Amino acid sequence: MGYSIDVYDHNFEEEVLEKSYEIPVIVDFYAVWCGPCQMLKPILEKVAQEYDCIVAKLNIDENQSIAQAFRVEGVPDVKIIRNGEIIDGFVGVLPEPQLRELLVKCNIKSQLDEKLDAIRQELLAGNRSKVAELFASLLTQYPEHRRVLIEAAKFYISEDKLEKAEELLSPIQMDEREFFAEAQAVKALIQFKAECVNPSGNGELESKFSRACCLTLDGEHESALQLFLEIVETDRQFKSDGARKAMLSIFELLGNNHPVTKEYRKRLMMVLY
Predict the structure, then answer these.
(1) Which pLDDT value is given to residue 1?
(2) How far apart are CA 258 and CA 71, in angstroms?
(3) 196 is an active site residue
(4) Nearest to 123 by CA among 159, 169, 147
């Protein structure tokens, strides 16, 4: 895990240039009066918590010598320094997903991503008690991190700890565009769990809907989507359009670029229109 630090003209060489030979340094040239700077600030603070790097914040109004030396003309101006040299950067507010792509390009590693990958490996190996231990540690270390909350909620749903999952997802609000839709999709898994365990009826469509919910929980997304699609074709209004909504939730869980999403989104459009 990296850290965030305020730097000044007098310690810039020591805290930024010298440290950059040990670990990448992201320098945030900002101004107190700058609105976009305040928007970027929490994103960079998150980076400092997650990545093997230093986030060095420099107020250009109080440290004009360094700002001039780096030819800063507008803020926020972010420069990534490694081995004493600028290797990349940007001016303005870069959306978090694009910032993460830039960090990958600069070979700056996320400790959180590495820990989540380790959890996935333990899940594949069937070491669920170890996974529970790792998630407990992550939730202590990153108690408000949305990715951690969402991934932990998925795990607790698979462990039948539905109240715990709902509790983890509750802080994620509608204005958090990057995470809200996925959080809602994970909440749908809680409903799928209920339908899988206790189907709401005995008819053919109820049985098919319940089976599709169970398949979703087992990670058999393509088979689940096929069943949900058949329900949409048979009775669009079944469970208040529940099959179509279930498909949209699975699309969100898989991501828009997943080949199964692309295929079944196309099939759903053909059925609907």
Answers:
(1) 67
(2) 42
(3) no
(4) 159
Q: Is 241 helix (H, G, I), strand (E, B) or coil?
A: coil
Q: pLDDT tens digits, residue range 250-266?
A: 999 999 899 999 999 99
Query: What whole-number distance in Å separates Cα of residue 64 and Cα of residue 240?
Result: 62
Q: How many residues does the chain have?
A: 273
Task: Report the range of poorest mean pLDDT among 49-58, 192-201, 204-213.
Answer: 192-201
pLDDT digit string (tens) for 65-80? 999 999 999 999 999 9
CA pair distance 268, 263, nearest whole angstrom:
9
β-pair type (77-82, 25-30): antiparallel
- Residue 119, in any domain of the structure: no
> Are 9 and 101 within one domain?
yes
Distance CA 37, CA 22 (A): 27
d(CA 77, CA 188) in angstroms, rounded, equals 41
The answer, yes or no, to whether residue 273 has pLDDT greater than 90, is no
Question: Are 98 and 201 part of one and the same domain?
Answer: no
Active site residue 34: yes
C-alpha dihedral sign at 195, 196, 198, 201: positive
Distance CA 243, CA 231 (A): 6
Domain coverage including residue 197: 160-272
Which of the following is catalytic: 37, 196, 213, 214? Answer: 37
